[in-house]
Design brief:
Blueprint: H1 2-13, H2 24-45, E1 48-49, H3 51-54, E2 56-60, H4 69-80, E3 84-88, E4 94-99, H5 106-117, E5 125-129, H6 131-159, H7 162-186, E6 189-190, H8 192-219, H9 231-267, H10 271-303, H11 307-325
Parallel strand pairs: 1-6
Antiparallel strand pairs: 2-4, 2-5, 3-4
Helix pairs in contact: 1-9, 2-7, 2-10, 4-5, 6-7, 6-8, 7-8, 7-10, 8-9, 8-10, 9-10
Membrane topology: Multi-pass membrane protein
Subcellular location: Cell membrane
Domain Protein export membrane protein SecD/SecF C-terminal: 117-304
Length: 371
Amino acid sequence: MSKLGTLGARLHRGEIGYDFVKNRKIWYSVSILITILAIAGLAVRGLNMGIEFQGGAVFNTPKNTSVSVSQAEEYAEEASGHDAIVQKLGDGSLRIQVAGIDTGAANEIKNTLAGDLKIDSEQINAELVGPSWGEQIANKAWQGLGIFLVLVVIYLAIAFEWRMAVAAFVALIHDITITVGIYALVGFEVTPGTVIGLLTILGYSLYDTVVVFDSLKEQTKDLTKQTRWTYSDVANRSINSTLVRSINTTVVALLPVAGLLFIGGGVLGAGMLNDISLSLFVGLAAGAYSSIFIATPLVADLKELEPAMKALKKRVLAKRAQSAAQGGTEVHDEETYADEPEDDAAPAVVGPRNQPASRSRSRGRPSGKRR
């Protein structure tokens, strides 16, 4: 842990670092590939929408029902004439979900299931959702997501600038697409819990991005008054200075979510935990990735399209080329960059250098006595 703390301090001071911005084309390519796979999975398999969004019925059997999941699924499809999803819960009960059925036929399906499962129909708890109500829930979910994204863009444009707002918006769309694509590929059911998890991870993703943007905004004050660093250089330093912090917060957040997903959903069989924990787990990982590899490099690309930043980059590269031609001795400006280490910011010596008078100038010399 002490080594990790030392690493974080050295990254923050700029003593070491990895050039994330320089390799941004690699990160863009990886993100585009993952996004294409997610969209392809969404187009081929589609989302497994819960009855809350499309209407239907959910039948919960008593504890320790002896019928297997596959057999119960067959019974439910025969009784309803629709596809059914069956989950075995931790207490041994079954959750049978049938979407797209008329709520008026729910009692008949319930009685048929009770006969097939050899249990009393009164022991089966039925939850009915009308199709119109499910459509309203879906519309509200889309509206909530749209309002969230609009407010995020407005806030970032006011607090920082529009280029950072655009970059953060792209990163959020990246995270949403990947999370939804994973849901389509895995086949997990999309419920209101999924929407809650999705909105939660967007907040986490935005948090990491804003931390880097805040550091970048602070370090780029009066950037054009010096000729040592381009905007991309400072953006890279901002990523490195907040890297350990982002990793730590993401790992700490992922650990309990992993417990919900693999223990709560996988071992205990709690269906609602699956719905919310998968979106949290995938979204947290994607959000940490996008804040480092997508949002900040994209801001650097957008900023260096400005004439002032283009001119700065040209001056910096020309000065570095001149320094390389002179044997690597860089001549610094008298005004150095604010966050630059002092040992790197020492100005070059110009003109004669006055040597201090030595108090032991006659040490080791003859005393001057005449012989």
